[in-house]
Design a protein that fits this description.
Layout lengths: L4 E4 L10 E3 L13 E6 L6 E6 L5 E3 L28 E3 L4 E6 L2 E6 L4 E6 L4 E3 L3 E2 L5 E8 L7 H4 E2 L4 E2 L3 H7 L3 E8 L5 E8 L6 E4 L2 E8 L7 H4 L1 E5 L4 E4 L21 E7 L5 E7 L5 E7 L4 E6 L10 E3 L5 E3 L30 E8 L4 E9 L14 E2 L5 E6 L6 E6 L3
Antiparallel strand pairs: 1-31, 2-3, 3-4, 4-5, 6-7, 7-8, 8-9, 10-12, 11-12, 12-15, 13-14, 15-16, 17-18, 18-19, 19-20, 21-22, 22-23, 23-24, 25-26, 26-27, 27-28, 29-30, 30-31
Length: 418
C-alpha cells in the first residue's frame, strides 16, 4: 500500500494545532487542484486558510477571534459567536469561501476581502451550508434554536457534549421546524425560505445540474431512519418528496433484504450530472449497504457489504463515479484497535474503528464493489474533526483526508493509481 503524505498541519506535536478539510459535501480543492482550503486553529481560533500546493504557502482568509460557533456537531461551542466550522463551503470554480461568523453569513475570495451577505435570524441554529454549481445561490439550513437549547455541562455527554435528550424526538414533540434559506451570493438578499415542519435539517446540497432542486436530510431520525433521511425539495413546484421508500429490492444484490423504515441511511450525495443520489447505511439487523437512486426512473440499486465490513465510514465520489471510503474495508486477519469513542453512541449501528482509505469501484448492475485499499489513515476517530472524510481531488489521482494519530488533526493525501 501507499504511504500517506502530510499536506497541511503541524509537523511535530509540541506547540501544535489542529487542521482539517472542509466538510465533504463540498470540495476542499480549487477546480484546478492548485489550492487546498482548510480550517486551522493555529492562531488560537479556528480560521480558514488556503494553501498553494506548489509552493506550500498558506494564507489566512477569515478573521475569527471568538472560537467556534455553536451549531450542529459543535454542540457545546459559543452561541452567536465564533466561526461556524460546519458552515464553511467552497465554490471551487471561483475560489470563494462561504461561512458563518458571529451569526453573520459571509464570503471571502483569494483577495481576502470579506463581504457580509446577511444575518442568521435570532433563535435559530445552523449546520452545513452549500453553494450552487453556478455560484449564484447559497443555501443555509437553519433549525429552531430550541432543538439545541440545553446546558452542555449539565445535559451533555461524550467528547462533543451532545444533548442527552433525543434531538429529533424534541423536534417532533415540540413541533419544531427547519428552514431552507437560499441567498443571492452577489447581493446577499434572501431569495426564499422554505419551512420544513417536524424536521431537523443539517445537510443541504443543490442539484449540480439544476439549483432549483435541493436535497436535504432529517438528521438522526428518532424513528424510520431508513425512509426519513433523504428528501428532495423542488422550488419550482414548491413540493417535497421522499427519496428512499420501503419496498422489495429488485436488483438482486442485497442478499434478500428489503428497504425498510428500520434501516439506517446516511451521507447522501449527488453524482456530477445530478441524475442520481448515492447513499450508504445498514439494513435493520443486517449488513451495511451502499445504494444509488436514479431520479428519472425512480429505480434503486443497493449492494450489501460483507458481514465483517462493519466499521463506520464515509463515501465520496470522483468525477468518474468511483467512490472512496474511510471505513468498512478490512483484511481477513485484521485485529482492530479498541478505543472508547463517545460518538459511537449516535444512531448509526457501526463502530468508528475503520482503518483504511480505500478506492472503491462500484459495479452497480453486477452488485459488486471493488475495494482497493490505498493506505491506513491511522485516525483515532475521536470527535467530528478527526473523522477522515476523504475526498478525491478533481483530477481523481489523489485522495485527501484528515487524521489524528497523535495529538493533533492534520491533512494528508495518498496517490491513486488508475
Amino acid at each position: 500500500m501507499e504511504e500517506r503524505i502530510l499536506v497541511s498541519g503541524c509537523e511535530g506535536e509540541e506547540g501544535g494545532y489542529d487542521t482539517q478539510l472542509l466538510y465533504f459535501t463540498c470540495s476542499s480543492l480549487s477546480s484546478d487542484d492548485q489550492r487546498l482550503y482548510v480550517i486551522s486553529d493555529r492562531d488560537g481560533h479556528p480560521n480558514v486558510y488556503v494553501r498553494n500546493l506548489a509552493t506550500g504557502q498558506e494564507t489566512r482568509l477569515t478573521d475569527n477571534h471568538h472560537g467556534t460557533l455553536k451549531s450542529y456537531v459543535y454542540f457545546d461551542c459559543n452561541p452567536g459567536k465564533g466561526l461556524g466550522k460546519a458552515s464553511v463551503c467552497l465554490d471551487s470554480t471561483r475560489d470563494i469561501i462561504y461561512y458563518i461568523q458571529d451569526n453573520q453569513i459571509c464570503k471571502v475570495g483569494l483577495d481576502g476581502a470579506i463581504q457580509v451577505l446577511n444575518q442568521v435570524p435570532d433563535d435559530r441554529t445552523t449546520a452545513f451550508t452549500h453553494v450552487s454549481n453556478d455560484g449564484k445561490l447559497l443555501c443555509v439550513p437553519m433549525t429552531d434554536g430550541r432543538a439545541l437549547d440545553y446546558d452542555p455541562d449539565k445535559e451533555g455527554y461524550g467528547l462533543d457534549r451532545r444533548p442527552v435528550y433525543n434531538i429529533d424526538g424534541r423536534v417532533q414533540e415540540e413541533r419544531l421546524s427547519s428552514y431552507l434559506c437560499v441567498y443571492d451570493t452577489a447581493t446577499g438578499a434572501l431569495l426564499y425560505e422554505k419551512e420544513v415542519r417536524l424536521c431537523w435539517i443539517t445537510h443541504v446540497q443543490f442539484n449540480p445540474a439544476d439549483p432549483e432542486l435541493i436535497m436535504f436530510n432529517h438528521e438522526w431520525p428518532s424513528f424510520d431512519c431508513g425512509i426519513r433521511r433523504i428528501w428532495l425539495y423542488d422550488h419550482r413546484s414548491d413540493t417535497i418528496v421522499r427519496i428512499r421508500k420501503e419496498g422489495a429490492d429488485t436488483s438482486g444484490n442485497t442478499g434478500g433484504h428489503e428497504r425498510r423504515g428500520a434501516d439506517w441511511i446516511c451521507h447522501e450525495m449527488w453524482t456530477d450530472d445530478g441524475g442520481t443520489i448515492i447513499y450508504h447505511g445498514g439494513y435493520a439487523n443486517g449488513p451495511a449497504l451502499v445504494g444509488k437512486y436514479e431520479l428519472a426512473s425512480q429505480r434503486y440499486w443497493e449492494i450489501a457489504l460483507p458481514e465483517d465490513y462493519n466499521a463506520y465510514g464515509h463515501f465520496t465520489m470522483d468525477h468518474q463515479h468511483n467512490l472512496c471510503c474511510d471505513g468498512y474495508f478490512k483484511f481477513p486477519d485484521d485485529i482492530k484497535a479498541v478505543r472508547e469513542n463517545s460518538t459511537d453512541n449516535g444512531p448509526d449501528p457501526h463502530k468508528k474503528d475503520g482503518e483504511y482509505i480505500s478506492r472503491v469501484v462500484p459495479h452497480w448492475e453486477k452488485g459488486r464493489l471493488e475495494w482497493i485499499p490505498l493506505c491506513k489513515h491511522l485516525s483515532d476517530w475521536l470527535g467530528q474533526d478527526a473523522h477522515p472524510h476523504p475526498i478525491y481531488n478533481h483530477a481523481g489521482d489523489a485522495i485527501f483526508f484528515n487524521s489524528r494519530s497523535g495529538k493533533y488533526v492534520k491533512v494528508y493525501k495518498v496517490p491513486v493509481s488508475k
